[in-house]
Give the backbone structure.
Amino acid sequence: MFRDSITRLTIILRTEKWRIIPLLNDRLRYYIWALRLKILGMKLGKGTLVRFPISYRYPNNIKIGQNVLIGEYAFLVAGPNSTITIGNDTKLAANVYVITTMHNYEDTKTPIRLQGNTEKDVTIGKDCWIGRGVTILQGVKIGDGAVVAAGAVVTADVEPYAVVGGIPASFIRRRGQRKDSGDMLRMTDIRG
């Protein structure tokens, strides 16, 4: 019986069917990664896919909705007194930074490292798309359906269904607007 099983496995591996094994292996690794995050206290909705590796702090203060995609090398930094909330059906590309804490630095007579931190929650609405390399700073609320262009630094709230980009992120257009030639984003618009 054992010999028959080995023979069947060998036949499967020699045929075209073997190509499904790496896919199942990746799914299994994603499942194990998500299970680890849940054990650490992160709240993950059904159907959420976290592509590893990611970095995080205070996972018990991170709440992720259903059917969310978080790209590899994401950095989710919640503080002990602040939360990160990501709505359903949202996509975060690779290398996205979400930060709820900021060093205090106003007192010039005290070293920055001794001045402590301030913390403010970050909320990303549902059905948002956060591009590759975006940084979202403390206290920001991104409205439902918003799109943040790759490489942007978001320092202020983003309205629902807005498309923003740049450093600091600024309004480009509204999602669903007709793309006439006058509405198209050009490199000259970004450079000023």
